Amino acid sequence: MLTTRHGVRPLGPPDLDAFLALAGRDPVVNVFVDYRARTTTLEPRWLGGEMWGRFEDGELVAACHVGANLVPVQASVEDARAFAERALTRGRTVSTIVGPQDAVQAFWNGVARGWGTPREIRWNQPHLEISGAPAVAPDPLVRRTTRQDMDELYPACVAMYTEEVGISPEYGGGAELYRARVTQLVNRGWSYARFDGDRLVFKAEVACASPRAAQVQGVWVPPDRRGEGLATAGMAGVVELVRREVAPVVSLYVNEWNAPARRAYERVGFRQTATFATVMF
């Protein structure tokens, strides 16, 4: 297939090996797109969008996931600008731009004039990783959740999302879809929690995973139980379980201003390896 202006074209199943090699240059930072590629084989109907590739002399040098989330992959500033130019020809269909800070900033500078005013921009989000045993004792009560936990788990997921994003996932009739997503993670064994009696007091999920890394999201403790060390011991428990059962490296990214969470992750043994940015609409 011929490439378009600036060497950019949509990728498909024949490009899967080249794409996985590209993502594999930084398999932890790129775990989301690696996961999406492996689970969809880059088939557009399964992607729910497109994966764009940028080529130089016939070689894939950068990519861009364009679905509900737009995610640059191994993109230089020049690559991000080329993807932005293509994006301007189709208008905004994404709800979030997220990924390595320099690429996101370059992409946003290229589309800002045509994509409208974002709801929020978070330019500085430390990307953290841990590849060994946690530095603190794991909470032994952290476990995988089951569908029998949904009465406690689902409201906690809604509360976390609303607190983190600033809008409820149920807004505009999204409750059924969001409940299905939570249930999917439970069924996959990617949802973890700690209970005091019947009450959930800590939770976290694996958002995506590859053979080399897993990305954690949705870390949450009820407001009245914060400051007790539940997040630190709970995350140590999640790290232990995920490294044993899912992937050898655990990653996440956190807002710069979330000092309590950053302290908890540091105590567990997470270290910053990159900086992300997010533009939300």
Automatic annotation (TrEMBL):
SUPFAM superfamilies: Acyl-CoA N-acyltransferases (Nat). InterPro entries: Acyl_CoA_acyltransferase, DUF4081, GNAT_dom, UCP21603_acetyltransf. It holds the Pfam family DUF4081. PROSITE patterns: GNAT. Residues 140-281 form the N-acetyltransferase domain. This is GNAT family N-acetyltransferase.
